[in-house]
Amino acid sequence: MSAKIVLLNPPYERIAKGYEFLRHITNRSPSLGLLHLAAMVREHGFSPEIIESDIAGLDEEAVVTRIVASAPKYLGITLFTVGVWSAASIARAVKKRLPKITIIVGGPHISSMGAETIERFGEFEIAVDGEAEWILVKLLQALEAGQPPETVEGLILRQEQEIVSTPRAAELKSLDPLPLPAWDLLSNFPLAFQPAIFDFPGGKVATIAASRGCPFHCRFCDTSTFGARLRAYSPGRVVEIMGHLKERWGIGHIMFVDDLFLASRIRVMEFCDRLEEAALKMTWSCTARVDTVKPDVLQRMRAVGCWEISFGLETGSDDLLKQMDKAACVKSSEQAIQWASQAGIRTKGLFMLGYPGETEDSIELTRKFVRKIPMDMMNLSKFTPYPGSPIYRDLYGTNIRADHWEKMNGMNFVWSPDGFSEEVLDQRYRGLLKSFYSQRRVLANFIKLGAQHPGHLVRLARFGLGVLGSRMRGHKLASAAQAR
Ligand code: B12
Ligand code: SF4
How far does residue 108's CA lie from ligand 1's centre (Å)? Predict the structure, then answer.
């Protein structure tokens, strides 16, 4: 019988306590990393299972019960910094009840901080550094053959008291030979895995990472998993995968999650040609740097179904953009949003608040900027120095501590720039979002989208009921406290 491996996306603080109603409107995309790994190990004779804890509504205890009932030989956990503590506690509980299991970890947190993490958390037995499809297959094969894991490249291991690394494994040169992600292993795919509200046209959605790697070095960004060299599927293969998703699962919209989907103009134009030939009639969205778009490319993208582009705009201050090493300026941000919107593509701006060097003036510049440009959606994250990002190294030893890992979800200020308390930053955070979302133009867009795709309105209603319920619970608690 083939050896079983459970691949786990652990529960973590996705939503701050008291704000559970947000789950109706947030992004519920599955881990593509686990889907790729599952497909690859299955192709090599292993038997994978996937647990998406949050999406399945499982807390730590429920996850442990599930794993113990499944009794796999191997447990593989994907680690974002935010999930490390909860993963360690699950690993500890599982190991107690299944002492022969081997616990393997990988993912962005391990690619940036693998050695420190397995040194600190004895529960994690073997760590895989970086892109892991081949490394995991070779590791499982070595373990099944009774060979020591030291023979496999790309690992971080505990040997007696020492933490050692084996030589770094070669990256994939092209993504084409990879098997299709194992979407069939997800329960209730695609319905349970919807993106954030108003962030897709409606209907069934799936994600694809059509390329890996990014040659830029924005100081807040952790690129340690895939490195600086861009590798991709051929445009034809991307279209084949889209066709498969449409035929097998009824998917109508694709979200490309690549760091740099538009890195090469030639590649994008060829992708558009292939997509047109295939006549799939699907819509899609992607992310882009502002300096990678031009009107003709945008018009071509629109003609073959591009529905939305998310631009990493970050701030309305040129000074801050410079400090971030973003290699872009506010003027080019404005230009890109205008071009995209003139081409008929919706735009989402990704911003952050609280980067080192942020001041009341820079916040005011951002506030004016988000009201000036014709952007349809705004995503504002609270600046977080993720391990693996250049800024983490600069700030480490100031006031970020490993205990902050559990809070590193972009929704907490784990670090504040000079002159700001967390409370003030929180006020500015709410103020910026309000400035943007209170605009009539923006609200009218949502109403229009909701009328075209009522699924969004259903989610909005559930969210509203959640807010109401939470207020009432707060009210009851307050009355109970007063009564005491
Ligand atoms: C799509 C995406 C999401 C989606 C899907 C999340 C998910 N679970 O995959 C959503 C929107 C839900 C999301 C949310 C968040 N994200 Co996000 N997200 C991405 C993005 C853009 C692409 C991820 C992807 O699909 N890559 C392609 C797949 C194939 O790669 P992969 O998942 O890394 O897996 C490979 C390896 O890591 C490794 N591997 C992964 N897991 C495992 C497990 C084992 C056992 C092994 C052996 C190997 C292994 O092998 C895989 C195949 O090669 C990345 C940026 C990037 N370039 O990776 C950011 C990124 C991963 N996100 C990030 C962050 C911070 C978050 C949030 C915490 C906050 C936020 N900013 O939104 C939340 C919560 C995260 C969570 N735990 O779900 C950071 C992580 C930094 C860190 N150290 O934690 C990244 C790197 C962005 C960045 N550059 O800073 N995200
Ligand atoms: S923010 Fe985007 S462009 Fe900058 S390094 Fe990260 S992935 Fe690359």
Answer: 6
The whole-model pTM stands at 0.96
Residue ranges around ligand 1 (CB below 6 Å): 9, 12, 27, 29, 31-34, 36-37, 76-78, 80-83, 104-109, 112, 128, 131-133, 136, 209, 221-222, 225-226, 257, 259, 381, 386-388, 409-410
**Centroid of chain to Cα 150:** 31
Q: What's the number of CA atoms in the CB half-sphere (13 Å) around residue 439?
A: 19
Distances (CA, A) of 474 to 19, 23, 193, 463: 11, 18, 30, 16
What gap in Å lies between CA 376 and CA 436, rounded to an integer? Answer: 9
* Residue bearing tokens 């590798």: 231
Ligand 1, residues 6, 13, 26, 32: which to mutate, most atoms within 8 A of Cβ?
32
Nearest by Cα to 328 from 367, 372, 285, 288: 288
Q: Tell me: the pLDDT tens digits for 332-368?
A: 999 999 999 999 999 999 999 999 999 999 999 999 9
225: phi then psi, degrees, rounded to nearest 5: -70, -50
Using N-to-C axis directions, what is the helix angle for 265-278 and 295-303, rounded to 10°? 20
